[in-house]
Amino acid sequence: MTDAPMNGQPGEVRRGLSRTDTMETVRKGLRRRYAAERRFKWYGRIAIAIALGFLVVLVGSILFRGASVITQTHILLSVELPMDAFSVDGEVTDESLQRADFGGIVKQALRDRFPDVSKRRDRRTLYQLISTGATYELRDHVVADPSLIGQTIDIWLTASDDIDMLDKGYIDRNVDSTGRRVSDQQIAWYDALIADGRLERHFNTTFFTSGDSREPEQAGIWGAALGSFYTLMVTLLLAFPLGVTTAVYLEEFAPKNKWTDLIEVNINNLAAVPSIIFGLLGLAVFLNVIGLPRSAPLAGGVVLALMTLPTIIIAGRAALKAVPPSIREAALGVGASRLQTVTHHVLPLAMPGMLTGSIIGMAQALGETAPLLMIGMVAFIVDLPGGPLDPATVLPVQVYIWADSPERAFVERTSAGIIVLLLFLVVMNLSAVMLRKRFERRW
Amino acid sequence: MIKKVVIAASVAVVFAGAAQARDQIQIVGSSTVFPFSTAVAEAFGQKTRFSTPVVESTGSGGGMKLFCSGVGTGHPDITNASRRIKSSEVELCAKNGVADITEVKLGYDGIVIANAIEAPAYDLTLRDLYMALAKDVPTADGKWIPNPNKTWKDVNASLPAVKIEVLGPPPTSGTRDAFVELAMEGGCKTFDWVKALKKKDKAAYKAGCHTVREDGGYIDAGENDNLMVQKLTSNPDALAIFGFSFLDQNADKVKGSRVGGVAPEFELIADGSYPVSRALYFYVKQAHIGVVPGIAEYVAEFTSEAAWGPEGYLGDKGLIPMSDAERAQWSASAQGNAKLSM
Question: What span, in angstroms and rounded, lies between the C-alpha atoms of B308 and B100?
Fold first, then answer.
């Protein structure tokens, strides 16, 4: 190392560039570059922290609001089941059971519990303690075991949504009673029931086993979960085989010419088409021309399959491209046909990538509502769907319908519905990760 | 090979589905009637052996379009509407073979102008509402000027000096249509020369009376009425326009303003003295009665006293019932399948 410049003329000394100066400049530059790097790292960390913060607030607030749906307030009533209320000419038949006035029996039980209520108006407020669905709970209980008739039984019946909200602390009992959903009198009854140990919160089986309802305490997510399941099954059965075959043909067999270029451009464009367009297509073609039933998961699944196809094809082609050519050459070299090369060697190696792509496509389909709007799956449906031809709705639609309902108790159900939807998504994404980890090969 | 089988099976399922008949009633239409229609559908499903009807909320206009698209199980049986069927829609129906329709009026809905419970109570007239929310307002000398009013005090000296900030439904909503027609036009007509204009130049009259301001005084708050209730509690200066059922359910958080001196209360809307209320309807396709099981029974359930009566369960959902005489008349015509005549 000398001070003399390498490419200058010998003996000429550059002014102002002594050894120490150079080092100083370099050191300054280094310091600046390190500082820039440190700053950049911090920008990244801050960005992640902000993103995580939003996520925590979002998920936290949903969990906070939705967690209370796990339990549901029930009231223990002593219900008298007199023989003559259920029998015609002293005989209990299926028909006489169906015709029995279970509503009246529940009301009588409430009046027996609070005998000092006599005015008609007060009675009406008394009846509002119990869900309107309690009538049908009692009916199902008695129909399942007709030997109860003639006895007085103790049965836990679902409380109304207002009482449930009061019990969960969503209704402030200190507010002036004119604007409160629960009257002072109802609060007094509620306190009396608590004192007797006749009001408790139990696990909310209704929410996890039934379909939608206009009464929050009777509304459940299971119908929508089933609908989502059937819809996605149809989507998977259609989109996966079609997508994989398309990807394999385009990647492994198709000649490279204008036509395949055109097809490729179109597939890429299709992936970016707004989903409502697919809904319009579904209405025009599948419902009006082919005549699929409206509101059925079959129609929804077909529409969503069209929507996910481009995703699956693009992911599938990327996965096929990632398989090294040496594998193909080796297979062809030992005499395998092109089809054998693909089905025995290339496709198994590309499968994890294709599956990941499909599951991501499916997860996207799970969250869609817009294309389903046009084919009638955004609807109020009480009965649980028994198959892909029965009318059904899907999880995000259920969340939307509940979010739009006036009753206060639907707020917690909306959040709980979102939790169930998120769980569905987490499970799907986890399975994508696991499939990839299990089958992935690295070269 | 397996894939071929799967594809073939899917195609087979597709065509099997096409041939299948329907055993549940399909109902489409207004989002305002949706809460009532669904409540009846659910009670009907529980009380009878029929499947629970499927109810879609498509808006009144969208419902009419689907309803009038034809006869056969691929088309809905009943449509709900927050307004009366239009003659153009009757013509569309007739063109597609939907000739016989039964009209049923089911009750009333009040549109309330609400604010947070701790905010001052407003006593508005229709003219106040119009002057606060119109894009252009008429002057005394027969001209339209851009709305100069910034605060409620500018509109009416007896109102508080609070900035005009009204949350309301978007233009696609039936509630908005009804609000514009009943409240805004009602206020607009109080100017004599504007009222005279209706006969001379209907287009100018409509443009002046029906156009909502876009400079921030009226805030499009989307279709979600729960969200508006939340916004009101966080902003005591704001007012919001929504259906009576939301006021009814959230009476501990928000209160309704008086309009024309009348408070939005159940009884006052029912007897017609509250000015911003509208009638709700549903329409039944007669050709489907007997084809799709349960239609007549559904109509009977809807028009029973247990549902739409003053003490019925629809009242709990926020429906304002009709008078005894009106109920008797409509239930008779509904159950007798009276044909709609315009």
Answer: 24
